[in-house]
Amino acid sequence: MERMKEIVTEADEQRLQHMLTDSPWDHRAALDQAAEEADQWLGGTADNCLLIDESGFAKKGKHSVGAKRQWCGRQGKVDNYQVGVFAALGKGHMSTLIDERLYLPEEWVLDRARCRQACIL
Question: What is the total count of domains within the chain?
């Protein structure tokens, strides 16, 4: 959202946040398009690479999807975290995100009611 605000300077931050969280846009199509464009710029050569990494985000409470007490390498400890797995395409000093997934701990996956409440299909 912050990068969007840099380009669309007259945009209201609340409206951008609404668009990202509440409006019915297809995030999968947006990521697929970004990956295709990244491949045109950064892919297809001997010096490009695919970078895969996980990152944990500290969370308070019990309502953030996928959050639980688990290891976070970024913080070097076990605490309440939400974990994402990210893929980036890189070439030289350039790289860009091309895919992402939220890691769901087993206790989340097995709790169908909790998943429905969190809109996990």
Answer: 1
Domain that holds residue 44: 2-117
What does the alpha-carbon distance between residue 66 and residue 68 come to, in Å, rounded to a whole number?
6
Compute the half-sphere exposure of residue 65: CA atoms within 13 Å on the CB side of its CA: 15
Over residues 49-72, the pLDDT tens digits come to: 999 999 999 998 778 999 999 988
Within 22-111, residue ranges assigned H as helices are: 27-42, 106-109
**Whole-model pTM above 0.85?**
no
Rounded to whole angstroms, the Cα distance separating 104 from 110 reads: 10
31: three-class secondary structure by DSSP: helix
Secondary structure element (H or E) that encloses residue 116, with its range? helix 112-117
